[in-house]
Amino acid sequence: MSGTGRADDRGSATVEFAVALPAVVVLLLIFLAGWSASAAKVRLTDAAGLAARAAARGEPESTGRGAMPSGATISVQRDGDLVRVTVRQRVSLGPLPAITLREEAVALVEPESEAP
Asked: Can you tell me where the transmembrane regions are (predicted)?
């Protein structure tokens, strides 16, 4: 018997690698897309909170826009003694379809302020 393996096993590692590699790449892309979406969600949460606090103090809407990620939209609504700020952003996930993230923050209007 010559060699270390059977003759019909030659090249099987190459075939297994060629089959497994696309699956690994797809999983990596999904992981990176999830990571990107999570980071964008954190930025939106921070921006919505800052904008809600600024609106509750009666500061102009432009104050809250300073913390906004690029491409994000903001809406500020007054509901009784509450200010509700909604921030939306379309996030590209590379080769995967883009998604729209939405974050909302609510703050109590401070008595001496005039919120929008």
From this structure: 17-35
